[in-house]
């Protein structure tokens, strides 16, 4: 089946099997291996991508369901200007250990802070409730997403660089 | 020549992680990301039965499907003498079943196809004729007369018993109990759980039939040991085997054993002349790979009426599954469980254990734990709380009364450990102060008066990690030592090669910090290589908190060895005798003339450009570290909970964790390890359990049935630290990755039991699901 999926701003026209999962289209057809597979059953969130801006689990969507859709994967966070504030914040606040859940966590975080520019601890925890991390205990992921929100707001309101993180 | 330089970010600095740049970009390289030309895909057919005779396996219909390259059966593996393989505990395990299946999920056949979807489709076309047999799902039934014999193929095996093991002094312990005023006991099952790293297990085997070179990308925490096992099992020349463990998406002990999938994929690659990728799905991971715990424990503690501990007696029934595949030092059948005397000055103790085969998956891996230390810590810390209730003492006071005093270290325990260092009172005091223990107890009284169920739980654990000294510690005969190689380049940058491997712990940063501390080279100028057996020194790998105690020590020692030569070169450059050279990171200076100095970078350059006559060029060394002793991290955890009497749900109000892991190399990373460990401990206490029905069907076979903590229910943690260096470790570090998983389950459970104390509830077995807590409340209140 021929589909056109826009991934990280680039349109790809692909001939894929109707049963091929979106996560496999991204990983195998487009070789975007930053999107991971952790559970095959929508439970862990390692495969999270943004589907027209909304976080979805790409292991539970067929590739054909993304026809005509804008998909953002972790590879799409990087811009010509460098790392996204979300990526910087995960580094700065030790929001990752093995790195396997990280792409999904950052994309959920991106989606959250667009809707909610100053999320509370509970807001963040509820937002990432569908994403399992086995390493960090979530404390520093929450901190990172909140810091990214603050940095994004700061950059948006003053046009200056992100503030120095508190946890030096 | 030397100038004022910025501070060297060695030990004690929260250096941001070097590995993160690739991970936040989605540019990690996990096994499933490996793509090789001509690569085929393998899927495994697994048994639907827990115990059944195999009459026949017919792969012909599968073989005929378009896209299928090969169907591999046990019979085919047997022709190559690969139907069985050794386990890490000296047993044998079926690679692909030939005679019987012995647990649900056991490997029966494999399909190799040009597409992973086709490989899975073809599994459905393999015809297997099974004849179901009687099933045993717990060690009590396994021990019963007339129990179905699981290992009928094993010579000399006439029942399901695997081992009997004892430690400590039985007579002395019996005497202690005979003279006791009070004896408390506890029977509890430490449930079977699964480490469940977010990345499942898998490999890409690439064997070149022309050269015999086998490169296997593998989710392995112990690539060097695996290489040796492959050489022994498959008869491949070891120099032709290269195991590469690239980035690992967590491990937690799950990625220590050799799994049948690795062996079949490698054999298939050899036979077919193509690379073969095998990546298990989550259900396969949960039902067939290394489980943890599953100990049925009985413990008794003897005390005098003033609360002095006199003796400890424990007996265990270990459910080992269908093959004895525990990954632990060969001398110790139940790992280091004999650390069960914990933080207490116990004059007598005795441990006995019996292991049994059951129709469940093999494993017995050290899940974020140094070989059964978690079970031991849980048992003693639960018993201590029972003893406090029995004697009407405060659970903090009875602990303090019996702690090994800081002046008693090094402390020889009655089960044979020599604890290196500790200050248990200090950690306890800090935890009590941080959580305001006295205030909480008052609040508890007020809440109880209002009919609320409020509890405070403590656990003061002592771990034993860093196996280990060569005379006692080996796995399948290989001594548990680790190597490190360090090379300083002419420009003063360095490459460190280590035998341990990171699965998220941050070795690429912390190990560079160790070298930075020793030699004055900034951590960002030191590349740390790990996980590739062709390019790193030998060692037993990363599990059981071995990395910092063993591999970290090797790193410090190799840096010191390099430093010895650096000093000689500095003396040459400074034109003084070596005795007159002092090292003030990163400068080598002349004694009494500190303005005469050269940097380590100057020395490195000279090592290739201007070295004295008679000296070899270069600046590098290697070192194999044999630890003189184990290390003993410790701490006190304090938890406050409220239990809802209507639903049995319990909520953590506060959680304070004070850890002492000796010297902290990178405090940020240490705290991250503790956060993660506490969360796994909470998961084990609250929800994680792999269950089986009476037919041996595995119930916890996906993340909907096997629950893991998410951000929503995970408590917020408050951390504290005391620092008692290990006296025998080169940098005084003890290891921390597992402390929190070892120590915290007892703290959570003690808190819930404390909440239910007014109702007289003495024990609930983990996991403390709301249903189990509710049932306990109902039973205590005489409800139905």
**What is the β-strand count of chain A?**
5
The first-to-last residue Cα distance of chain A is 52 Å
Task: Report the average pLDDT across residues of chain B.
Answer: 96
Count of DSSP-assigned helices of chain A: 5
Distance between the termini of chain B: 83 Å
Characterize the main sheet of chain B: 7 strands, mixed
Major sheet size, sense and barrel closure of chain A: 5 strands, mixed
Largest interface: A-B, 59 and 57 residues
**Structural class category of chain B:** alpha+beta
Helix content of chain B: 25-40%
Q: What proportion of the residues of chain A form beta strands (DSSP E)? A: 5-15%
Helical region count of chain B?
19
Please trace the helix and strand order of chain A, writing H or E for each element. EEHEEEHHHH
Report on this model:
The complex is a heterodimer of chains A (168) and B (784). With 168 residues, chain A is of the alpha+beta class. Chain A is 34% helix and 14% strand. In chain A, strands 2-1-5-3-4 form a five-stranded mixed β-sheet, covered by helices on one side. In chain A, a hairpin with a 2-residue loop joins strand 1 and strand 2 (10-15). In chain A, helix 2 (85-92) packs across helix 5 (139-158) and helix 3 (102-115) crosses helix 5. The termini of chain A are far apart. In chain B, helix 17 links the parallel strand 31 and strand 32 (718-721). Helices cover 28% and strands 24% of the residues of chain B. At the A-B interface, helix 2, helix 3, helix 4 and helix 5 of A face helix 1 and helix 17 of B.
